[in-house]
Amino acid sequence: MKIVTTIQEVREQVKAWRKEGQTVGLVPTMGYLHEGHASLMDASVRDNDKTVISVFVNPMQFGPTEDLESYPRDLAHDAALAEAHGVDLIFHPEPEEMYHEGFSSFVDMTVLTEELCGLSRPVHFRGVCTVVAKLFNIVQPDKAYFGKKDAQQLAVIRHMVDDLNMNLEIIGCPIVREEDGLAKSSRNTYLNPEERKAALILSQAIALGAELVRRGETDCKAITDAMKTKIETEPLARIDYVKLVDAATMQQIPVLDRPALCAIAVFIGRTRLIDNFFTEDVGGAV
Ligand code: PAF
Protein backbone atom coordinates (compact mmCIF):
# COMPACT_ATOMS: atom_id res chain seq x y z
CA MET A 1 0.00 0.00 0.00
CA LYS A 2 1.28 3.47 -0.96
CA ILE A 3 0.67 6.79 0.78
CA VAL A 4 0.84 9.84 -1.48
CA THR A 5 0.28 13.52 -0.82
CA THR A 6 -0.02 15.08 -4.27
CA ILE A 7 -2.78 15.08 -6.87
CA GLN A 8 -0.24 14.24 -9.55
CA GLU A 9 0.86 11.06 -7.75
CA VAL A 10 -2.76 9.89 -7.46
CA ARG A 11 -3.38 10.60 -11.14
CA GLU A 12 -0.24 8.71 -12.21
CA GLN A 13 -1.13 5.66 -10.11
CA VAL A 14 -4.74 5.56 -11.29
CA LYS A 15 -3.63 6.01 -14.91
CA ALA A 16 -1.28 3.02 -14.58
CA TRP A 17 -4.11 0.89 -13.11
CA ARG A 18 -6.49 1.98 -15.86
CA LYS A 19 -3.93 0.95 -18.49
CA GLU A 20 -4.04 -2.55 -17.01
CA GLY A 21 -7.86 -2.49 -17.19
CA GLN A 22 -8.32 -2.33 -13.41
CA THR A 23 -11.45 -0.86 -11.80
CA VAL A 24 -11.07 1.66 -8.99
CA GLY A 25 -13.12 2.29 -5.84
CA LEU A 26 -12.80 5.42 -3.69
CA VAL A 27 -13.54 5.80 0.03
CA PRO A 28 -13.37 9.49 0.97
CA THR A 29 -12.62 9.95 4.70
CA MET A 30 -11.38 12.53 7.17
CA GLY A 31 -9.21 9.88 8.81
CA TYR A 32 -9.17 8.60 12.39
CA LEU A 33 -10.57 5.47 10.83
CA HIS A 34 -12.86 3.11 12.74
CA GLU A 35 -14.94 0.04 11.91
CA GLY A 36 -17.48 2.18 10.07
CA HIS A 37 -14.75 3.21 7.62
CA ALA A 38 -13.50 -0.39 7.57
CA SER A 39 -16.89 -1.55 6.30
CA LEU A 40 -16.63 0.99 3.44
CA MET A 41 -13.09 -0.14 2.59
CA ASP A 42 -14.21 -3.79 2.66
CA ALA A 43 -17.09 -3.04 0.29
CA SER A 44 -14.75 -1.22 -2.10
CA VAL A 45 -12.11 -3.96 -1.98
CA ARG A 46 -14.84 -6.52 -2.68
CA ASP A 47 -16.32 -4.58 -5.64
CA ASN A 48 -13.21 -3.14 -7.32
CA ASP A 49 -9.72 -4.25 -8.41
CA LYS A 50 -8.10 -1.30 -6.63
CA THR A 51 -9.17 0.82 -3.67
CA VAL A 52 -8.09 4.38 -2.92
CA ILE A 53 -8.96 6.11 0.34
CA SER A 54 -8.52 9.81 0.95
CA VAL A 55 -7.58 10.99 4.43
CA PHE A 56 -8.20 14.73 4.51
CA VAL A 57 -9.72 16.84 7.27
CA ASN A 58 -11.45 19.24 4.92
CA PRO A 59 -11.33 22.76 6.41
CA MET A 60 -14.05 23.97 4.04
CA GLN A 61 -16.78 21.86 5.66
CA PHE A 62 -16.21 23.18 9.20
CA GLY A 63 -17.94 26.33 10.48
CA PRO A 64 -15.89 29.00 12.33
CA THR A 65 -16.91 27.72 15.79
CA GLU A 66 -16.62 24.01 14.95
CA ASP A 67 -13.95 21.41 15.75
CA LEU A 68 -11.52 21.71 12.80
CA GLU A 69 -8.48 22.19 15.05
CA SER A 70 -9.37 19.47 17.54
CA TYR A 71 -10.62 16.92 14.98
CA PRO A 72 -8.68 13.72 15.79
CA ARG A 73 -5.85 12.76 13.45
CA ASP A 74 -3.63 9.65 13.43
CA LEU A 75 -2.18 8.74 10.04
CA ALA A 76 -0.09 5.82 11.34
CA HIS A 77 -3.20 4.17 12.80
CA ASP A 78 -5.18 4.93 9.61
CA ALA A 79 -2.46 3.45 7.40
CA ALA A 80 -2.28 0.25 9.46
CA LEU A 81 -6.07 -0.21 9.36
CA ALA A 82 -6.31 0.60 5.65
CA GLU A 83 -3.50 -1.84 4.81
CA ALA A 84 -5.12 -4.58 6.89
CA HIS A 85 -8.32 -4.09 4.90
CA GLY A 86 -6.63 -4.36 1.51
CA VAL A 87 -6.50 -0.68 0.49
CA ASP A 88 -4.01 0.03 -2.32
CA LEU A 89 -3.47 3.78 -2.03
CA ILE A 90 -3.96 6.48 0.59
CA PHE A 91 -4.25 10.05 -0.65
CA HIS A 92 -3.30 12.32 2.25
CA PRO A 93 -2.99 15.88 0.93
CA GLU A 94 -2.17 19.07 2.81
CA PRO A 95 -4.91 21.72 2.64
CA GLU A 96 -2.72 23.74 0.23
CA GLU A 97 -2.65 20.81 -2.21
CA MET A 98 -6.47 20.76 -2.32
CA TYR A 99 -7.05 24.52 -2.11
CA HIS A 100 -4.34 26.48 -3.88
CA GLU A 101 -4.05 30.22 -3.44
CA GLY A 102 -6.89 31.97 -5.20
CA PHE A 103 -9.18 28.93 -5.00
CA SER A 104 -12.64 30.28 -5.76
CA SER A 105 -14.87 27.59 -7.30
CA PHE A 106 -17.47 25.80 -5.20
CA VAL A 107 -20.21 23.22 -5.57
CA ASP A 108 -23.32 24.51 -3.86
CA MET A 109 -26.66 22.76 -3.51
CA THR A 110 -30.13 24.07 -2.67
CA VAL A 111 -33.21 22.13 -1.37
CA LEU A 112 -31.50 18.98 -0.04
CA THR A 113 -29.13 21.03 2.12
CA GLU A 114 -31.81 23.26 3.66
CA GLU A 115 -32.91 20.93 6.47
CA LEU A 116 -31.23 18.84 9.19
CA CYS A 117 -27.43 19.32 9.35
CA GLY A 118 -27.62 21.87 6.52
CA LEU A 119 -29.74 24.10 8.76
CA SER A 120 -27.49 23.75 11.83
CA ARG A 121 -24.21 23.86 9.85
CA PRO A 122 -24.73 26.45 7.08
CA VAL A 123 -21.36 26.07 5.28
CA HIS A 124 -21.05 22.33 5.76
CA PHE A 125 -22.49 20.87 2.57
CA ARG A 126 -20.86 23.44 0.30
CA GLY A 127 -17.54 22.23 1.73
CA VAL A 128 -18.50 18.56 1.45
CA CYS A 129 -19.76 18.86 -2.15
CA THR A 130 -16.74 20.86 -3.23
CA VAL A 131 -14.16 18.49 -1.74
CA VAL A 132 -16.00 15.35 -2.87
CA ALA A 133 -16.34 16.72 -6.41
CA LYS A 134 -12.60 17.46 -6.38
CA LEU A 135 -11.80 13.95 -5.10
CA PHE A 136 -13.99 12.44 -7.83
CA ASN A 137 -12.14 14.51 -10.44
CA ILE A 138 -8.74 13.58 -9.03
CA VAL A 139 -9.32 9.83 -8.60
CA GLN A 140 -12.01 9.29 -11.28
CA PRO A 141 -13.29 6.16 -9.52
CA ASP A 142 -15.86 3.71 -10.87
CA LYS A 143 -17.56 3.62 -7.48
CA ALA A 144 -17.39 5.68 -4.29
CA TYR A 145 -18.49 4.54 -0.83
CA PHE A 146 -20.23 6.56 1.91
CA GLY A 147 -21.78 5.56 5.24
CA LYS A 148 -25.51 5.83 5.88
CA LYS A 149 -24.78 7.42 9.27
CA ASP A 150 -24.30 10.65 7.34
CA ALA A 151 -27.61 10.07 5.58
CA GLN A 152 -28.09 13.64 4.39
CA GLN A 153 -24.51 13.71 3.07
CA LEU A 154 -25.18 10.50 1.13
CA ALA A 155 -28.38 11.96 -0.38
CA VAL A 156 -26.62 15.22 -1.23
CA ILE A 157 -23.73 13.42 -2.93
CA ARG A 158 -26.06 11.17 -4.94
CA HIS A 159 -27.94 14.27 -6.04
CA MET A 160 -24.73 16.11 -6.99
CA VAL A 161 -23.56 13.14 -9.07
CA ASP A 162 -26.90 13.07 -10.85
CA ASP A 163 -27.19 16.85 -11.34
CA LEU A 164 -23.63 17.26 -12.62
CA ASN A 165 -23.53 14.04 -14.70
CA MET A 166 -20.56 12.65 -12.81
CA ASN A 167 -19.60 9.29 -14.22
CA LEU A 168 -19.52 7.01 -11.18
CA GLU A 169 -21.76 4.97 -8.92
CA ILE A 170 -22.39 5.97 -5.30
CA ILE A 171 -22.70 3.10 -2.82
CA GLY A 172 -24.30 3.69 0.60
CA CYS A 173 -23.21 1.31 3.38
CA PRO A 174 -25.11 0.50 6.61
CA ILE A 175 -24.39 2.24 9.93
CA VAL A 176 -21.86 0.34 12.05
CA ARG A 177 -22.56 0.44 15.80
CA GLU A 178 -20.68 -0.24 19.00
CA GLU A 179 -21.91 -3.31 20.87
CA ASP A 180 -24.15 -1.14 23.05
CA GLY A 181 -25.73 0.59 20.04
CA LEU A 182 -23.80 3.88 19.73
CA ALA A 183 -23.14 4.63 16.06
CA LYS A 184 -19.40 4.56 15.31
CA SER A 185 -17.95 8.03 14.78
CA SER A 186 -14.51 9.61 14.99
CA ARG A 187 -16.15 12.22 17.25
CA ASN A 188 -17.01 9.54 19.87
CA THR A 189 -13.41 9.96 21.05
CA TYR A 190 -14.35 13.42 22.42
CA LEU A 191 -16.67 11.81 24.99
CA ASN A 192 -15.53 11.34 28.59
CA PRO A 193 -16.77 8.16 30.33
CA GLU A 194 -19.88 9.87 31.71
CA GLU A 195 -20.73 11.38 28.32
CA ARG A 196 -20.05 8.06 26.57
CA LYS A 197 -22.78 6.50 28.74
CA ALA A 198 -25.12 9.44 28.12
CA ALA A 199 -24.54 9.16 24.34
CA LEU A 200 -26.51 5.90 24.35
CA ILE A 201 -29.64 8.05 24.43
CA LEU A 202 -29.22 8.62 20.67
CA SER A 203 -29.46 4.96 19.65
CA GLN A 204 -32.20 4.42 22.25
CA ALA A 205 -34.26 7.24 20.73
CA ILE A 206 -33.61 5.82 17.26
CA ALA A 207 -34.77 2.37 18.45
CA LEU A 208 -37.93 3.93 19.91
CA GLY A 209 -38.71 5.85 16.71
CA ALA A 210 -38.10 2.74 14.59
CA GLU A 211 -40.36 0.69 16.84
CA LEU A 212 -43.20 3.25 16.53
CA VAL A 213 -42.86 3.17 12.74
CA ARG A 214 -42.80 -0.62 12.75
CA ARG A 215 -46.00 -0.65 14.82
CA GLY A 216 -47.71 1.47 12.17
CA GLU A 217 -47.54 5.01 13.59
CA THR A 218 -47.66 7.46 10.65
CA ASP A 219 -47.98 10.81 12.46
CA CYS A 220 -44.48 12.29 12.22
CA LYS A 221 -45.01 14.66 15.14
CA ALA A 222 -46.11 11.80 17.39
CA ILE A 223 -42.94 9.88 16.50
CA THR A 224 -40.51 12.79 16.89
CA ASP A 225 -42.22 14.01 20.10
CA ALA A 226 -41.82 10.57 21.67
CA MET A 227 -38.15 10.51 20.63
CA LYS A 228 -37.56 14.03 22.01
CA THR A 229 -39.18 13.10 25.32
CA LYS A 230 -36.88 10.10 25.53
CA ILE A 231 -33.75 12.19 24.78
CA GLU A 232 -34.79 14.80 27.36
CA THR A 233 -34.56 12.16 30.10
CA GLU A 234 -30.77 12.36 29.70
CA PRO A 235 -29.44 15.43 31.56
CA LEU A 236 -26.22 15.66 29.48
CA ALA A 237 -28.13 15.69 26.19
CA ARG A 238 -29.21 18.81 24.29
CA ILE A 239 -31.28 18.30 21.15
CA ASP A 240 -30.19 20.01 17.94
CA TYR A 241 -32.92 18.36 15.87
CA VAL A 242 -35.18 15.30 15.73
CA LYS A 243 -36.94 15.21 12.36
CA LEU A 244 -38.69 13.04 9.84
CA VAL A 245 -38.02 14.07 6.25
CA ASP A 246 -38.80 12.82 2.77
CA ALA A 247 -35.92 10.43 1.97
CA ALA A 248 -35.48 11.92 -1.50
CA THR A 249 -35.86 15.68 -0.90
CA MET A 250 -34.82 15.90 2.78
CA GLN A 251 -37.85 18.18 3.36
CA GLN A 252 -39.97 17.72 6.50
CA ILE A 253 -43.22 15.78 6.11
CA PRO A 254 -46.27 15.65 8.45
CA VAL A 255 -47.35 12.08 7.66
CA LEU A 256 -45.40 8.96 6.77
CA ASP A 257 -46.87 8.48 3.30
CA ARG A 258 -43.58 7.92 1.44
CA PRO A 259 -40.07 6.58 2.14
CA ALA A 260 -38.67 8.79 4.89
CA LEU A 261 -35.53 9.41 6.91
CA CYS A 262 -35.72 9.93 10.64
CA ALA A 263 -32.60 11.87 11.63
CA ILE A 264 -31.39 13.24 14.93
CA ALA A 265 -28.52 15.45 16.06
CA VAL A 266 -27.87 15.74 19.78
CA PHE A 267 -25.14 17.48 21.75
CA ILE A 268 -23.69 15.36 24.53
CA GLY A 269 -21.77 17.94 26.49
CA ARG A 270 -19.95 19.84 23.72
CA THR A 271 -19.90 16.92 21.27
CA ARG A 272 -22.51 16.91 18.52
CA LEU A 273 -23.52 13.39 17.49
CA ILE A 274 -25.92 12.21 14.78
CA ASP A 275 -27.90 9.04 14.16
CA ASN A 276 -30.81 8.00 11.95
CA PHE A 277 -32.98 5.32 10.43
CA PHE A 278 -34.72 5.01 7.09
CA THR A 279 -38.36 3.94 7.43
CA GLU A 280 -37.80 1.50 4.56
CA ASP A 281 -35.07 -0.26 6.55
CA VAL A 282 -37.19 -0.82 9.66
CA GLY A 283 -40.18 -2.37 7.91
CA GLY A 284 -42.48 0.65 8.15
CA ALA A 285 -45.86 0.50 6.41
CA VAL A 286 -44.60 2.75 3.57
O1 PAF B 1 -17.93 11.91 5.76
C1 PAF B 1 -16.81 12.43 5.81
O2 PAF B 1 -15.90 11.95 6.46
C2 PAF B 1 -16.54 13.72 5.03
O3 PAF B 1 -17.66 14.54 5.03
C3 PAF B 1 -16.08 13.46 3.58
C4 PAF B 1 -17.14 12.77 2.74
C5 PAF B 1 -14.81 12.62 3.60
C6 PAF B 1 -15.76 14.78 2.88
O4 PAF B 1 -14.74 15.48 3.56
Q: Find the structural class using helix and strand composition.
A: alpha/beta
Which hetero ligands occur in this complex?
A: pantoate
Beta-strand residue percentage: 15-25%
What is the arithmetic mean of pLDDT? 97
The CATH superfamily label of the largest domain reads HUPs
How many beta-strand segments?
Answer: 9
Examine the coordinates and then state which fold CATH places here, giving the name of the CATH topology of the largest domain: Rossmann fold
What is the CATH-assigned architecture of the largest domain?
3-Layer(aba) Sandwich
Q: How do the strands line up in the largest sheet?
A: 1-4-3-2-5-6
The CATH top-level class label of the largest domain: Alpha Beta
Low-confidence stretches: none
Distance between the termini: 45 Å
Radius of gyration, in Å, reads: 19 Å
Backbone shape: globular
Give the ordered list of helices and strands: EHEHEHEHHHEHEHHHEEE
Number of helices: 10
Number of domains: 2
Question: Which sheet architecture does the biggest sheet show?
Answer: 6 strands, parallel
Chain-wise SSE layout:
Blueprint: E1 2-4, H1 7-19, E2 24-29, H2 35-47, E3 50-55, H3 75-84, E4 89-91, H4 95-98, H5 116-120, H6 124-139, E5 143-147, H7 151-163, E6 169-173, H8 193-198, H9 200-214, H10 220-232, E7 237-246, E8 260-268, E9 271-278
Helix pairs in contact: 6-7, 9-10
The chain binds pantoate (PAF).
Pantoate (PAF) binds next to strand 2 and helix 6.
